[in-house]
Amino acid sequence: MTESLENKIKDRSAVIGVMALGYVGLPLIRAFWEAGYPVVGFDIDPQKIDMLHRGENYLKHFGDDFVAEMARSDRFDVTDDFTRLGHPDVLLVCVPTPLGRHQEPDLSFVRKAAEDISQQLRPGQLVVLESTTFPGTTREVMLPPLAAANGLSVGGDFFLAYSPEREDPGRKDASTQTIPKLVGGVDDPSGDLATLLYQQAVQQVIRVSNAEVAEAAKILENVYRAVNIALVNEMKVILDKMGIDVWEVIDAAATKPFGFQAFYPGPGLGGHCIPIDPFYLTWKAREVGEPTRFIELAGRVNHDMPGYVVQQTMLALNEQGKAVHGARVLVLGLAYKPNVDDVRESPSFELIEQLEGLGALVDYHDPHVPQMHPMRHYPGLDKASIELDDAALSGYDCVLIATHHEAYDWAYIGRHARLIVDTRGVMRRVGPVDAVVRQA
């Protein structure tokens, strides 16, 4: 089986299947299509399938041609029929790994993917999990249902590996093809084949000893970011009490050419990885009897930032003689990061909910997110982006900058808003403005 699949990968006749066509799966299927492979995407959302068949892209930051070019090709197909999972030679699993209501790992999508694959698994297939998760998931969660399928053996009849996604939506200087790829198999034959596969579509592939190392490396990458963001968030709160500009402090520290990497404060953590991954490690650490005090402390600091921003907004309004109850507040930016339409875990939702809970009348504007869509943790929030013009800006008691999209003209906003609460440090680079500005 190994030699047969190896030959298919080398001559690019292997059919590459990708499960879940979101921020990870869609660019991944594009990368293998560009490498010359026939590809087939699987997703439970029939609306996505219909759009892809029409050549329409629902992830706008990739551009219109990102999907249209593939849709015109006879090497591209998408489906919501999971009985076809036995057709591809390779299955790359990119399903979500969210948190449950008590901050525990929710592996239901991974388990469902493993069960769906097990029902169609055939000899000669390679399965690779890409979803971010705790060390041991590939071997402990994915492998058992696959190994029970038709008496097939891993490393001989089928192959299983882990290769963490490293997507960064909106980044212009890196892509799926250029970001180095980690690969670890549950055994050597699986690791060999997965490494060979990714080498055909990605410029640099790093083989590690096993799946657990690859899983732990992904967790470490995001815990590192979460901890350092927590550090600057805590510094922001401390320095604000001292009357010191944290943004200037960071810029000054960043002039050191070694030993310092700049991280920046904000209104809270967003995206699928940084707010979630530390809890996966914390949960797994408890299983082996080890506390994660440092990581949990960082999580608490980051979790508290929306509340801090709301407090600063209340103080800013109070200084203008306005109570938060009944105040009209405009939140600029719903996406969790600049220049994308990705709202996963965005702190803007928490800001809006907390402000409305205090009686404020809250609207939002985001050039990339014209309409809120249902969010699991915020089912009651359903708003459309307002039109941003002179009258709108001047009509709000406070403009709260949550996301620093490049599309915003900060000087224009500063001329027409009455009060600005700036969580991103953008107004300090604008110069004198008519609005009262408070850093938060």
Domains, number? 2
- Poorly predicted runs are none
Oligomerization state:
single chain
General form: elongated
Helical coverage, percent range: 25-40%
Question: What's the rounded overall pLDDT mean?
Answer: 93
The biggest sheet amounts to:
8 strands, mixed
The strand line-up of the biggest sheet is: 3-2-1-4-5-6-7-8
**Number of strand segments:** 13
Number of helices: 15
CATH architecture descriptor of the largest domain: 3-Layer(aba) Sandwich
What Rg do the Cα atoms give? 24 Å
CATH class of the largest domain: Alpha Beta
Helix and strand sequence: HEHEHHEEHEHEEHEHHHHHEHEHEHEE
CATH superfamily of the largest domain: NAD(P)-binding Rossmann-like Domain
Rounded to the nearest angstrom, the distance between the terminal CA atoms is 59 Å
Quickly give the structural class: alpha/beta
